[in-house]
Specification:
The protein is of the alpha+beta class. Helix content is about 20%, strand content about 20%. It contains 2 helices and 5 strands. It has helices spanning about 5-10, 60-75; strands at about 15-20, 25-30, 35-40, 80-85, 100-105. It has a 5-stranded antiparallel β-sheet, with helices on one face. Strand 1 and strand 2 (about 25-30) form a beta hairpin. The protein is globular, with a radius of gyration of 14 Å. The termini are far apart. The chain binds adenosine monophosphate (AMP) and zinc ion. Zinc ion (ZN) binds near residues 3, 5 and 6.
């Protein structure tokens, strides 16, 4: 499958890996938008948040647990933002579900 993040998970494209387990893979964003900016993706190819169902939604809870652990380890304290963009209008550029984790600076709301 011609998917950038599937290739990163498979090690076919290099990444700055932060964490990996059987279900998910976390790596630093190549174009960081905050002092801490990493992505967490399911290893299973799910194209986006619009494809989450009762059958596959367990990965979302798992990923949020991983995010809580990683943000603690990275010293983000309790201040971070988790974002998933779905569809081009929302700014999704890679068609594999991913959660951005941003921290280390004050983050404005609402986003643009
Ligand atoms: P989105 O625009 O929400 O789909 O997010 C895709 C993210 O993937 C962007 O923040 C990109 O900077 C990031 N990205 C694209 N290619 C790579 C790569 N090879 N390694 C790490 N991050 C990447
Ligand atoms: Zn994929």
């Amino acid at each position: 499958m011609d998917c950038l993040f599937c290739k990163i998970i498979a090690g076919e494209i290099p990444s700055n890996k932060l964490y990996e387990d059987q279900q998910c893979y976390a790596f630093y964003d190549i174009d960081p938008q905050a002092p801490v900016h990493f992505l967490v993706v399911p290893k299973a190819h799910i194209t986006g948040a619009n494809q989450i169902t009762d059958e596959n939604s367990g990965i979302v809870g798992h990923i949020f647990g991983v995010i809580a652990k990683l943000t603690k380890e990275l010293g983000c304290g309790d201040d971070f933002r988790v974002v998933t963009n779905c569809g081009p209008m929302a700014g999704q550029t890679v068609g594999h579900l991913h959660f951005h984790v941003l921290a280390g600076r004050s983050l404005a709301w609402p986003p643009g």
